[in-house]
Amino acid sequence: MTTTExxxxxxxxxxxxxxxxxxxxxxTEARLLDEGREEDWYELLDDAFVYEVPVRQATEPxxxxxxxxxxxxxxxxxxxxxxxxxxxxxxxxxxxxxxRTLRVVGSIEIHGTEAADVVRVASALLLYRQRGIDTWNxxxxxxxxxxxxxxxxxxxxxxxxxxxTETTLGTPNLAVFL
Length: 178
Hints:
alpha+beta, 6-stranded mixed β-sheet, 4 helices, globular
């Protein structure tokens, strides 16, 4: 990283207005998903959105845990549209009845990029999930690596890489968005 890039990144990370904007964006996104408002959440996605949930390799050192050898989910915005449309049919049986969720987002770090209108955002997510017919619940801890485009209409999620803490997920399906 050059001195200019370091200075820019430090300025972005310490900008209180940007921090408030990104923190509010992540909180709004979590609330929309927790309330089952996927259509509204979808509007927060950039047209170039890519969503990825790689498999953590337990036998690898930390530097190589998330290789491209295993991917749980790799969706574009068009794939997300299909998933939401399927949820709305009532025939997505992994979500009948729908999951009740609570997302807690924290440990937010914001970094600049080469593009003036794009920032990298690292955050931690704890997702509590329970379905009305199940006696058990899930607690899914995740580290997220996002890129967010800053637009005149507000922030738009450009990409998300959700890194699960667990190597083997205890949940029977991953039909909810991380």
